[in-house]
Amino acid sequence: MVRGITLCVTLSFLEEGWDKNIYVYPTTMKVLLVFDFDHTIVDENSDTWIVKCAPASKLPEEIKKSYQKGLWTEYMGRVFRYLGDIGIREEEMKSTMTAIPFTAGMKELLDFIGKHKGFFDCIIISDSNAIFIDWILKAANVCQVFDEVFTNPASFDDCGYLTVQNCHIHDCAKCPINLCKRRVLEEFLEHLKPKLKYSQIIYIGDGGNDMCPVMCLKKSDAVMPRHGYMLESMISQLSKNLVPLEASVVVWSSGIEILAYLELLTKG
Questions:
Q1: CA 61 from chain center: how many Å?
Q2: Which of 3, 142, 172, 259 lies in disulfide reach of 180, CB 3.0 to 4.6 Å?
Q3: What average pLDDT score do residues 42-53 get?
Q4: What span, in angstroms and rounded, lies between the C-alpha atoms of 90 and 44?
Q5: For strand 148-152 and strand 248-249, is the pairing parallel, antiparallel, or unpaired?
Q6: Is 38 part of the annotated catalytic residue set?
Q7: Rounded Cα distance, 202 and 148, in Å
Q8: Catalytic residue among 36, 47, 210, 221, which?
Q9: pTM higher than 0.85 for the full model?
């Protein structure tokens, strides 16, 4: 089992075949925790938080108005080019990003998971980017909690500009062009067969793009939507529309509530 963070600069295991020597597979069944990142692990949107680097923490109107639905990664590419054009470089970006607040109780939750890695595997599937997540997790000293991080690849070019690419190619009509979280999760699980099967999958998120992977969860699994956010609303609407959701639903407001739920599982 990988200890620490493996940033997916490309989803090579999806596109080109995964190196099967990455993992030493456990022999006992574990619980898989799947985390979103923005407004879940951290209490902000990391992509919009970077705007604090801009003068007066604002973007020019022409950039703000350039966003097209479903093309967020392309939009962020323009944001990063603008920041590069005005002289914002890696160290200033890193200083800004590592000041992002974690969601209440989340550090306590991650500490608990880290102490029970024999029971839990833990991955992130996020529409942020590899650089931001790496900075934030390392600054908080929680990299070791996560076995894999799947997100949009990012790097600094020769001119010091941050660049970002789409996470992968997919054909899901419900998801933005750069990322289908369901496909990432399903391919991750499929690759592990038959060497590893989880006793339960727990999906923890907040946003609309978390709905697609939630729909593939089974009766033994659980989805934990953040209270007051889009995912909770969408799950509630499913019930009203009589659309079946197999997984149990556990709403949370603080990481401490998630911790209490996981604690019960370890005592199970």
A1: 29
A2: 172
A3: 97
A4: 20
A5: unpaired
A6: yes
A7: 15
A8: 36
A9: yes
